[in-house]
Design a protein that fits this description.
The protein has one helix and three strands. By secondary structure, it is an alpha+beta fold. Strands 1-2-3 form a three-stranded antiparallel beta sheet, covered by helices on one side.
Length: 69
């Protein structure tokens, strides 16, 4: 489990303005501050679910023996 103070979590929306979901940001950008590892997730319409996926991606990267920060 990664300590919460090591993560910088922010909303992420690369889409141009316009369309049916104007003003809705579902994407999440999570950065692991000590290593600079970044995960950006926009797979779900739920920002909470996207955050969970991004944190698990960072945990997987940090525990992989072949990961080079």
């Amino acid at each position: 489990m990664i300590p919460q103070q090591d993560l910088l979590i922010s909303p992420y929306d690369p889409r141009p303005p316009g369309g049916q979901r104007v003003g809705v940001t579902n994407g999440v950008r999570v950065e692991h501050m000590p290593t600079g590892t970044i995960a950006i997730v926009m797979t779900s319409r739920s920002q909470h679910r996207n955050k969970g996926i991004a944190v698990r991606m960072i945990e997987a990267a940090l525990t992989d023996p072949e990961f080079i920060p």
